[in-house]
Amino acid sequence: MDTGGSDGQKEKISPKRPTIYDLAELAGTSPSAVSSVLNGTWKKRRISEKLAKRISKIAEEQGYAVNIQASVLRRVRSNIIGMIMPKYDNRYFGAIAEQFEALARARGLFPVITCTQREPELEFEAARELVSYQVDCLISTGATDPDRISEFCAAAGVRSINLDLPGSKAPSVVSDNFAGARDLTRLLLQRFAAPAAEGQPLLFIGGRGSDHNTAERIRGFEAAHAEFGIPLPPENILPCGYAAQKAEDALDAFPSSLPAGLFVNSTITLEGVIRWQARNPSRAFEFGCFDWDPFAALLPGNVGMVQQDVAGMLAKVFELTATEASPDLNVEIPCIIKRLGGQG
Amino acid sequence: MDTGGSDGQKEKISPKRPTIYDLAELAGTSPSAVSSVLNGTWKKRRISEKLAKRISKIAEEQGYAVNIQASVLRRVRSNIIGMIMPKYDNRYFGAIAEQFEALARARGLFPVITCTQREPELEFEAARELVSYQVDCLISTGATDPDRISEFCAAAGVRSINLDLPGSKAPSVVSDNFAGARDLTRLLLQRFAAPAAEGQPLLFIGGRGSDHNTAERIRGFEAAHAEFGIPLPPENILPCGYAAQKAEDALDAFPSSLPAGLFVNSTITLEGVIRWQARNPSRAFEFGCFDWDPFAALLPGNVGMVQQDVAGMLAKVFELTATEASPDLNVEIPCIIKRLGGQG
DNA sequence: CTGAAAGCGCTTACAG
DNA sequence: CTGAAAGCGCTTACAG
Questions:
Q1: Is B25 within 8 Å of chain A by CB?
Q2: Which residue in B311, B318, B315, B248 sits closest to B92, CA to CA?
Q3: Which protein residues have Cβ within 7 A of any strand C atom?
Q4: Closest nucleotide to A30's CA, by C1' atom?
Q5: What are the pLDDT digits (tens) for A36-92?
Q6: What is the C-alpha to C-alpha distance for residues B259 and B283, in angstroms, rounded to an integer?
């Protein structure tokens, strides 16, 4: 308080936060009354409106903020909902994070998201940390080992739900990857129904064959070729990983001349494909991409993109948080196909 | 435990999480010993390695996870660091979120990020909520009213730091928007040093004139024109807002013929510019954009992008969390200019 | 080398 | 209409 102080004091005095005891003293009432006024249960306790007003005013004046740690410790439910996700910095996961927070808040829940870089160990540690934070429910988004997390949650009495990638030990909400991929493949094949290209198979590039979503998308890719009666040689399926560089390398190594149409399995992969195209301007092709990005949509040669229905998936997730669903439940949400101009 | 139970029981019995008391009983020791073994202070307490091992083993077997709410309540510092940010779903904010989490974790802090949609009220409520969660420090990223948050934090004894947009009541870390904009403008002007376009001013589009960053970028835009001796008419500066549609409308309304070069103030604005271009293919122009996006970088006509140094900014932020910096401090971090192909 | 005890700031039956 | 009291699960001086 000594504004002219020039002594050796190193730390600012951290003004102690007021507690309900401080407020009770200032209001000339009891901590119980303050607590119930501040947490909204005062009507049930039949506290007079006059006292409630007085307490609220004092709380406001003092800049009171409840100590949620103490509150949660005492309560049965924390009203905290946790989510782990692999990355923030692409449009799909960014949209999930943003909408998840909005939906949680609309339900009076406090959302805590943490991002785990697709590293299985970090994923599990993050899950453990969120359980330590007393989350009522944990959403595992795109987790590499969702079942391990579900088991840990179950042991701790915490509900868990899988999003984007399915698991077998908790209910799962995923895109209908098969239908989305099939429809995108159809779009591409129709494009090449012109006499010159007719009957040519496409090239599938990107993702991991071991991952459920990529496997489903390959299945859809194959189904559309079958519909069109176009034979699909196995070398036309290149699940070379997600990194952009992997896609460039795979295209460099592709033995024969490149097909006229590419099914690109993610926007990350697409970055590599486009870089390869820049190095090989003579090899014209068009492409479609599984996942949406507004700038990628503007690229020449882009025939269509598959936008996953983030809002639909999250609505289902929140529906599941409110019910006791079977771990076997696997909800598939249809994707949205965005038809684009093409013309590489 | 009755696996064959078929009675009317509606709720699963939520297995009560083990506490240090449970572990102490199982290990035949005291809760204090368990606590110190689990939180790593056991060496200081000279607890035998044998007992420590036994306790750790039992904790593992029981799937013990500390109750952080209880732990934080008792401790002086929470080791929680909070961040509010406007959006997740663009590359700039996505990168900030991702790197912020990684850096926090590396320092043994628990990061909690919450996204506030550029809504001042939500922003303040989120800040209050994070203070309730006992954050030791709050980072306000791109906040519309950082000073209100800083004041609230100060009253609660919580340190705060501004990122991306500066404030006057807490130390700030922002990009050197002036120099970044000046350099990008130079890049564009050099491009048009060819006889045909020589002496033509550029068009600045997007952002809000009231916001510090946009004002600084306009200043840099003007400075580069002055350097080149090119007069800049005021109508060539269009801070029409951030939304893509606003940019489209502004270009539609632009009175005279469009300049050959555009300074686009954000990737959001760029979406609108590109849509306008698609509707007006005859009006050729090249552009530069403040902010980085890997797909936007691939667009034809893109002469260069300004990438903000997220890693550099965050390093500075964490440096500031460890010191008692003046609220007047305003650190400017240089941007990275990405020169691109151009040729719309 | 180890334990008993106080207390962090709340919430909520319980008793007027 | 209101308050005293117990207790959530920890941590940490303090006392052996």
A1: no
A2: B311
A3: A 16-17, 19-21, 31-32, 35-36, 38-39, 41, 45, 64, 66-67, 70-71, 73-76; B 29-33, 45-48, 51, 70, 73-74
A4: D3
A5: 999 888 888 788 888 889 999 999 888 899 999 999 999 888 999 999 999 987 889
A6: 9
